[in-house]
Amino acid sequence: MTDVATVDLHFIDMPAEDASADTTPLVVIHGLLGSADNWRSHVKVWQRTRRVIALDLRNHGRSPHAEGMRYATMVDDVIALLDKLAIERAHVLGHSMGGKVAISLARMAPERVASLIVADIAPVAYEHGHDDVFAALDNVREGQPKNRREADELLGEHVDSRPTRLFLATNLVRNDDNVMALRVGLDQIKRGYNDIIGVPDGQQPYDGPVLVLRGGESHYVADDMLPALREMLPRARVVTLKNAGHWLHADQPEAFQQAVVAFVDAQ
């Protein structure tokens, strides 16, 4: 654990619709510049059979902004939330950066993790790859757009992909000055970026059940990364979703949802 103070994470807590449902909840952790809001349609499916908690990591969504983006630091935040909700063990799903948070949680506090689902990330260090995204968000912050059309134009000066711009726009909120402003802690994220692209924290392998879902058109979990993955997650089962990129839960939502349900129900 770290000596950085934990933050009180914002979260969505959805009870199971089935009163006889499994009592082990599913905790969902978003990726870089994502939020719990991105997962609402999936949560509605998963809550049919179990309680689902989707959280906002520090500097994301509605959670507080704070220095420190080490994975051990973010794990401390998540454990503090589990403690607050009196959740002793949970199935933990993490996408991208959130997948590294989930892996770190499983390695640092395996007694809190009933099973692990890692979505399109490997426990390796990646190269810098978000300079255009950060420049686009800085452009919005400086341009102070009055509406989403103006914001999209500012984002478009650095990011060509419209789906990416739409995703980034989920981080915009109208402030008291009637300007579309960023709700993410962009400066804290940029200062912590080297930690974000680094390896997960923890000293030991996680020996529990693990499902790794990767996009068939994504490079984030390449075959040459699998030895490092299996060293850290020896029981990992790797499943490739066809016609899916890095945002595989958006590209193939039904296949993704069904894979998670089948895996968690089998535990």
TrEMBL record:
Domain spans labelled AB hydrolase-1: 25-252
Origin: domain of life: Bacteria
Coiled coil (UniProt feature): none
Any Pfam family: Abhydrolase_1
Keywords: Hydrolase
Tagged with keyword Hydrolase: yes
MF-aspect GO terms: hydrolase activity
InterPro entries: AB_hydrolase_1 (IPR000073), AB_hydrolase_fold (IPR029058), Epox_hydrolase-like (IPR000639)
PANTHER family: PROTEIN ABHD11
Listed name of the protein: Alpha/beta hydrolase
Organism: Vreelandella sulfidaeris
